Amino acid sequence: MDNTTKETEDILEPRHMAFLEAYLNPKSDTFSNAKQSALKVGYSEATAIKIMNVGKQWLVKALEVEKGRHEIMLDKAENNLETFLESNEDIKVKADITKFVAERIGKARYSPKQEIEASIQPFKPDEKTKELIQEIVKKRKESI
Fold it and tell me: What is the domain range of residue 11?
């Protein structure tokens, strides 16, 4: 690869930037959907289907930058959290923050959601129950 090709790969074209905006912006209607983001900015159906599977340098570099940005933001959030939790600020806010972080970072351990397994058996009423159901149905029909 010559230097001209290398330099061209490092430059984001307008369509590349539009794709990244559509794909990475949480306010975009195609956020986190690579195919729809690619179609939205004018890529062909064939390219849109495989856009994340192709080792395009501009895309790889842009996603690395975004990942690095997220890591920096997470570090800042963690530092702010530590500072706040060590301060003598409002205890209710501390409790809410602690719960929020525990449920997300340690969700396997602290999440209030629980998986429940159940086995549902078909309803098989006995004779007395059948008679009662028939009486109820009859009374409802009469009241209509």
Answer: 1-54
